[in-house]
Amino acid sequence: MQIPAALRPVQILAADDDADLLALIAFSLRQAGFQVVTAADGSGALRSFASSPPDLVLLDINMPAPDGLNVCRSIREHSRVPIVMLTARDREDDLVAAIHAGADDYVTKPFSPRALLARIRALLRRSEPVVLGTLQAGAMQLDVQAHLLRMGQGEPVLLTPLEAKAMHILMASADRTVTVELCAQVPAGNCRGFDRR
Hints:
By secondary structure, the protein is α/β, with parallel strands linked by helices. It is 38% helix and 19% strand.
């Protein structure tokens, strides 16, 4: 049973040749509700990106060839996915090189998992596409932008953001039961296009 794209967990590709740090990052992200794919070098990161494009990429600058900057440039040739560079380098020239390569953020090691999560969530918020138009299921129509629900020809009802999120999940899953397992795969506030309140 396929989960609708808007309800899938956010997938993050994390690439770092420090196995212990990579394991810590992956654990922290999974605990926060993200789906994580890992790679230990630049080649692995590019293969993973090609086979299953993620919603966000974490790249260590000093990975075995190709290094993080070159991986970032390669991804930028065909994708606008948010990219965060992870590095022990803290010189201004390194930051400028990462931004010129196409990175959206630059985090120096050591860093706290909580701070990294905050940066990731901020980038994902800014990168979310605005969902416009109407979602339809049977006689129900949900105006995604205005949070208006209409039943048949009746008057539209203005929903709260939380009600709109719930209706979005239900309508995107029309003709099947919405289980606790399905809802658990949707990180809090991850219905794209809705306010996070």
